Sequence to fold (484 residues):
Amino acid sequence: MTSRIFRIILGRLLIAYGAVMMAPAVMAFYYQEVTTSSFIIVGLFSILSGLFLHFVGGSEGRMGVRESLTVVATSWIVTVILGSLPLFISGVVPNYIDALFEITSGLTATGATVLTDIESLPRSILFWRSMTHWLGGMGIIVLFIVLLPNIGIGAVHLFKAEVPGPTNEKVMPRIRDTALTLWGIYVGLTIIEIILLIIAGMTPFDAVNHAFSNMATGGFSTKDTSVAYFDSFTIELIMVTFMIISGVNFTLYINFWRKGTINVLRNTELKVYLFIIFSSILVVAGTLVLQQEYQLTLALRHALFQVTAIITTTGFVIADYDIWPNLGKMIIFFLMFSGGCAASTTGGLKVARLILLVKMGWANIKQAIHPRLVINIEVQEKVIEPFVLQRVARFFFLYIFIFVFGSILLAATGLEPFEAMGATIACLGNVGPAFGTAGPLSTYAEISNLGKFVLSWLMLLGRLELYTILILFIPQFWTAKRNW
Fold:
């Protein structure tokens, strides 16, 4: 492995990250908060560390897949550790495991929290939590490619290592152009949502924080009762709209601009994604009306918001779905596995993979009846290559294995079985709120330090699609002479 290119890129990232941290430092200084010095100290430490790594890096060398995976994984781990320090040093979060959990949840756009009195927190901390969502939602490495573009072919490997989904489309010939366009769309949509939320009645501070969280499909709020605090259907409708938008493959927006509406609406993943959302809303609303005697309008309102928040892995809350009828709870639970579309800001398995898994399952059933039958699996009239299908199947198996293993570990810490499974998939799928102890009206504060540590790793695994983290623990990855 070429350590020089690793040091240079990590150094540049730390410089940029430290500069970003100065935004909450300025806010803390303006409001004369206790967090001022902690943000400045950590920000300067990040910048100076980055400068040191950059200048001792030497010549850049060649970046292959191994370097790219190492850079991405290390960058996320380092930014989590540094990002958690202001919370801990300032004393706002006195337990470092809690601070680590909180910022891991922030950068991975999970939205799970250990904080119980959110409205009493310094504004700079609330802003930093939401900013970590926004940075991690589209990807800190993708942003890095935009800001510091002169890394050559290595940008392609970095992009593929971080962007979630079974495929990583460049869309444009140059990877920097793709990254720049994706971030341009992301920023534009965020600004539009901020303006709409202010018009709908939020203060500018609340609007910025909720728009940052919403566009990243994160879920951190400035209020203890999340979006329920505002009790405004207009605000909920705005947020639902942008949740759905954020859950769509962002490359479709580029294609929409270039090719028009008709081609985009033919996208199979988009149609299945919307079908899952609206069919789940109808079923959940039906169970609320029939089994809990909800008024139809209230049932539709709660189902619309919570179904959308869960499938897009946003995790905002306006209702306690933990007390819903069993059918409604099970739909919420399974939606935590789904997630949105590939190359979106959502977590989960992704709808694209679910489509291929269903098609593979159906093909296997037909081949069991007709063993000599040759079946090509197609999506949008394109035959999917066997290696892609194998990769999806392996990913699904590994995802379920980690879910089971994580659930067992959490159950060993004292959680009830369903609570353990809920917390595991809520963190692995980057959803946020789960059930029971970590339910929609609770926090993860009651979970043991060991449990929080396990969940923090699950959040990173889910955000980086498993392999980018797991491969670091494979000895052959480090000892192989070939740099792929």
Summary: The radius of gyration is 22 Å. The chain has a mean pLDDT of 86.
